[in-house]
Design goal:
The structure holds two protein chains of two kinds.
Chain A: H1 8-21, E1 28-35, E2 38-45, H2 51-64, H3 68-76, E3 81-82, H4 87-96, E4 98-103, E5 106-111, H5 140-150, E6 156-163, E7 169-176, H6 182-194, H7 203-209, E8 222-224, H8 227-235, E9 239-243, E10 249-252, H9 270-299, H10 307-316, H11 324-344, H12 347-367, H13 373-386, H14 392-430, E11 432-433, E12 436-437, H15 446-450
Antiparallel strand pairs in A: 1-2, 2-4, 3-5, 4-5, 6-7, 7-9, 8-10, 9-10, 11-12
Helix pairs in contact in A: 9-11, 9-13, 9-14, 11-12, 11-13
Chain B: H1 2-23, E1 35-45, E2 53-61, H2 66-69, E3 72-80, H3 83-91, E4 97-99, E5 105-109, H4 110-114, H5 117-126, E6 135-140, H6 143-148, H7 160-165, H8 180-188, E7 195-202, E8 207-216, E9 222-225, H9 227-236, E10 243-248, E11 253-268, E12 276-290, H10 299-323, H11 331-338, H12 345-352, E13 357-368
Parallel strand pairs in B: 1-4, 1-5, 5-6, 6-7, 12-13
Antiparallel strand pairs in B: 1-2, 2-3, 7-8, 8-9, 10-11, 11-12
The chains are: A alpha+beta, B alpha/beta.
Amino acid sequence: MPLKGKKQVNVDEAIVGILEELKLTGDVVHKPLRMDDKEIELLYIKTVVDGDQLHQLIIKPFFELGHLHHVASYLNSLPNQQEVQSQEQILLDLTKGSVLVKLNKDLLLFDVKKVNTNTVRETSVEPTILGPQYALSEDLATNINLIRQRYHKPSLTVEMHEVGSKTNQSLAVIYDQNVVKEGVLKEVNSRISELDQDIVQSTTQLQRFMNNRTRSLLPTMMATERTDRIVYNLAGGKVILLVDGSPSTVIAPAVFFDFMTSMEDNYGLYWVTKFSKFLRYLGLFACLILPGLYVAATSFNPEVFRVELALSIAGSRIGVPYPSFVEVLFMLIIMELLTEASIRLPKAVTGTATTVGGLILGTAATEAALASNIMIIIVAAVAISTFVIPINEMSYAIRVIRYILLLFASIAGLAGLALALIGILMYMTNKDSFGEPYFKIYFNQKRAETGDNPS
Amino acid sequence: MKKRLKGTWRAFVILFIVGTLLIQSGCGFKDIDKRIFVLSIGVDHTDNEEKPYRVILKLSVPSGSLKESGAEYTYLIKESESISTAIRLLKTETDKELDFGHAKVILFGEEILHHDYREIMDFFLRRRDIQTVSWVGVGKPSAEDVLTAEPNSEMAGSHALFNYFDQNGVESQLIVTTYLFDFRRRVLEKGIDPILPILIAKENNKRIDLNKSIVVNDKNEVLTLNEKQTAIYNLLTNNIERLDIRVHNEDVNFTVAIDTANVGYQLITEQKKKPIIEMDVEMIGIIQEADMITNPEKLRAYSNATSKTVKKDVLETLTQFQKNEMDPIGFGVRYKATRLPNNKRNQEWQSLYPEVEFKINVNATLKSTGVIE
């Protein structure tokens, strides 16, 4: 829509005002086009505008069309025309890649954005053997396209918001109108409107900003890069949040058991997936309680396990100078450092770090009598089983919880361990994610829980 | 903002203090390498009036390479007026904390059974760190000899005495297993008497024999059961399902391997009639060894011969129990449990038991002669 009801003077003033705002920017282009008695003016920022498209869409037709009012009707019927509301809005859109056209006494705005981040990447965080191999891109439009490609339903709704008072990133809220839970949607929207952050760069950041707490341990929204997971959750009535420029989405609400599900569970055979699910929960318990259990068994309740085990632990601890919990802490911290290092290091160096670390963890620590043999096995088991948890954020949270259990086990042995486990269970049951109980055990059929009634 | 910072600071300080507390060596944090495990406890009776008990503790010394050097044992022995005193004194003889958590075998010298073994039993029950699933037995010639015996078959890291009892190692019709809790129940309950396995150290303490058992009654009288009686006891209490029976018949001798056995009994007491215990023994097995050529068509005859032998053996054993006023099977408990209480059932049974008549029905079924002909 052109700026109607304003005089020509105002349009010229507006252009002057905009140029004044942008005068320090080197990549601003202000170009009048003239042919015979036709004349339009273009104003855009060169670096965010797709030159080819601009040429095809505006410049070429201008010279081909016979009369100015042909040009006007052509431009006014272009589908990527944007609404013009105020000078500030024009400025904002110019920075996003729009072109301002002055036609007669009107200002027209066209979206000819150039996007370099729309390559779809392969899944790297949650790889599966079966199932789609491509994840999302870093461009919002491409991502929405990817989701729509997999979810053909007219009820799929995309609401656009803007977040970040400085960066003005677009945020898309995607849900299926028919199955979404009203309460959750309302809650999500109200929290988005309450956001007052200067910069929001990643979708996963929203997770922290939106949970209404300064400190939290367990994630209440699930970050994922897998389009099949997104579609699966959309169909289950959840809300998907997507920030422009971020290759992952967050899904709300998310309960504990969501984090233990891999998309592969839907693709494999029944008993195979049941087995891998069982393995995953086994891994969860192993990495949670093994360190605490070791401390409890060596320092408090050696009678709980077999006498052979007690003797063999006692034998392998000969010469270890510090009490068991220091030993466990020491080995666990080294293991965490190793994990942390292999995530952050450039890929070329990672190999070296893990090899050196593996050597230290493996044999040298026992040779030097800093840790017992059994401790090494436990650390290895813990390290491996941490990675069994499919969603990264949950496995980070479990890593932290492990230390809490270790602390209580070193204070009160097996009783402390059991108490701490109960405490964590209570913490989890007390939590909720956007109004949904976090630790709810779903006894009902999936259809009844998601409210997905075929109609 | 300032307030929040203060809170974080305080939490940090508290965590730090707790952290340093944990590292203090004086906090009584007893690691497994500061403990020494007592594997079995033996109590012998001395003839000394002042110090009647001789307590033997078998300790396991952990070694770094369990597989190569094997388990090493060490023994602590003390005579004292009570077991607690002895253990208190023994504590000072090691540099480590004595841990009774794995003390799973408790042995008494036979002499103890003639004295007041109830007080000793009490000690083991009251100590919370001794598990009541410990096995109780009688050592011969003394508990000390059996405990210090190191059988040649004992492997590194596994205690031979445990293997005898825990059914993971040897399984035999001749081994009676009595748990500490069961022993206590049998001692305190009227109508059932404790039975203990007898462990005999032989050949310079290089071998332990355990194929006899001993029954103690309320009057501290003991009855030693030989191999056959022990096997019959195990059969009658359904402790075992597999057993061998040697059948001596007029013309044939053979051994039967039973693999399924089931025993049930009923007490029949009618007014003015002799009380009857009717016992049904069901057995299924095969012939394992014979001194003649077995004929599959005569299986029925062999079965009957087996039944007859078992019937005779069971009757002999039960009669001997009756004669000695012993009741390890618990007929008295069954009597009390199946009659309405009138506070006199114990005395009633006392007078009934000597008159009881045993009616034994044995139904042995031989499935095969064990060979293909």
